[in-house]
Amino acid sequence: MQSLRFKALEGLAGVDSTLTEHNGKITEVFGSNVFTGKVVREYLSDEAYKSLMNSVKNGTKLERKMSEQIASGMKAWAMKKGVTHYTHWFQPLTGTTAEKHDSFFTLKGDGTALETFDGDALVQQEPDASSFPNGGLRATFEARGYTAWDPSSPAFILEQAYGKTLCIPTIFVSYTGESLDYKAPLLKALAAMDKAAVDVCNYFDKNVTKVTGTLGWEQEYFLVDEGMANARPDLIMTGRTVVGHAPSKGQQLEDHYFGAIPERAYAYMRDFEVEAYKLGIPLRTRHNEVAPSQFECAPIFEEINIAVDHNSLLMDVMNKVAKRHKLKVLLHEKPFAGINGSGKHNNWSMSTDTGVNLLAPGKTPKTNLMFLTFFVNTIKAVHDYADLMRAAIASPSNDFRLGANEAPPAIISVFTGKYLFDVLQEVKNRVNNKFDEQDEAILKMDLHRHIPELMLDNTDRNRTSPFAFTGNKFEFRAVGSSANCASAMTVLNTIMAKTLVDFKAEVDGLIEKGEKKEIAIMQTLRKYIVDSEKILFEGDGYSEEWEKEAEKRGLANVKTTPKALDAMVTPKATQLYTETGVYNEKELHARHEILLEDYVKKVQIEARVIGDLATNTILPSAISYLNELVANINGLKAIGLGDDSVKAQKQIAAKIAEHINVISENVQAMIEARKVANKLTDSRQKAIDYCEKIKPYFDVIRYHSDKLEFLVDDKKWALPKYRELLFLR
């Protein structure tokens, strides 16, 4: 281990950071490996093209003969680009993507070798459902599961060092039909939101026939040298450093944010951006983030399903490209203690097929009222289902980040900005239950009197808010960097669908009683503002005052994943998901079980890693140096020097011995606690036991290990240190 550390350090100076050779326009390569646009037109007949576009736009099922034609055209395009294999590319509940490659090559009965790809192979495949997380839905002897093509997400070619593969985005379901992935529930949530939003839009514009959810994610990540990472078993096994003394210089000087991008990082960015452009991922932004060696990239907004696929794909691409640059990408939310962690801000909005962003104020009373309707309904949805919003971002790694000084707290609240907050108050105060003629003036209010047309500047930015309005969209800032965006987007679009359905029912009820449509809408909006105003918060989410204020308001502050996940299986959540058709009760309980099991396993892995590091790396380093100190003390005494001459050495030796003893005792106690927890059969109880029994040992072991790193001679310390890991050379 010690030699690995110094070899890693020596290798830093020899890293080649040559820029990727692509000097043309981005548009020259953008989408070149995607079966979309002109390519589809070129390789499909008019009949097949129209059928595919109708399926994408309206969700209609493709006829068998059409799938055969599409498969044939897709194969011809892919083979022309050097592809030999294809795969159904899906997103199981492992947190990563999955693929099983099959070749176009086949042998016929007469021995004839052919390249084939038929409609059946395009539309459906059969992976093993029992080998993926399934929450008890599939036993080992019930292995069958299906992947089914999602025509709305275009196929793409994944280029690797030794070949090219045609990837077909799919959903993943069990033999009995339950969803086992992130995509299937997301598509259901988007369909539910679309229908509910169209119904409400028709109050204002009968021409609206479709509402599409849009997403612009911001991906934060760390880069460290691959050699340094490989010398840290904790980074490789858990994605974070479970021990490490903070360096003298971290992010105190605030000199990294938006600074000049280091050459090595820049070369890597250029490389993975080119790969992303080929895959149609519309990256637009790159910059240094706050912490040392932390960076961010962000794309142009896309339809949510496509955006989620692109983010999952990008994380794969980033990892693969990093290997070419001898770098390690860290997507863990908190890979290093004491400095900022990483998030994946989800910027969400809705747009109509008539070209209107429903979260952008309009220029006429009618469009202003439509904006206000969707704006208030979003706030009401978050208020009513804040517990599910919290559950959507819950993970053991995000627990380290939430509530720290760079991430929103675990308390779900909504930031609107001063101007819109004032608008809500005006509606609340001026509209009464009777809504007389004098109050009809508010229907004609000019929101642009409050909101400048330059939408990006109409509110301040509140980095402490988990869900903030930022001009023409809401930013869900609490999502973690390693998360699949589908988790947050499924919840958000589901609760939006439910709230809009309820809103329409209330408005229609008032209209049936004789109220004018606009008056009925305003009365219902006022009710929603009053009902959900406790979720609105414009101040500092990091402050202790807010925690106290939130408690007074009755807002939950759930700081651990197991308790946050409980919200998924309440009667209220079950009713929501079954009514909207996003999950059935069996699927919901399975998801809850899967996420709890994931939590337990990750805590267990970290416990084993920290125990192994302490026993086999940290303690031997400390003991070796302690022996040197003792020998030095004895040597000085042997030549006649008294206790005063070895006072400093004895103090250091005593501290090291103390830390060694505490670490050793706590590692053993942690092992015993883990044995007790392993005997428990109830997953929730397991999770709670790990939180309460094992994590405190983590903290003690980490604290004393960090002290040892500071005290032990640099040449004796086996692990690469924080100061070595944090700065990209």
Automatic annotation (TrEMBL):
SMART domains membership: Gln-synt_C
Organismal lineage: Bacteria, Pseudomonadati, Bacteroidota, Chitinophagia, Chitinophagales
One protein family per Pfam: Gln-synt_C-ter
Source organism, top-level taxon: Bacteria
PROSITE patterns, per database record: GLNA_ATP, GS_BETA_GRASP, GS_CATALYTIC
Protein family membership: Belongs to the glutamine synthetase family.
Species, as recorded: Chitinophaga eiseniae
GO biological process: glutamine biosynthetic process
Residues covered by the GS catalytic domain: 182-618
Protein name as catalogued: Glutamine synthetase type III
Coiled coil: none
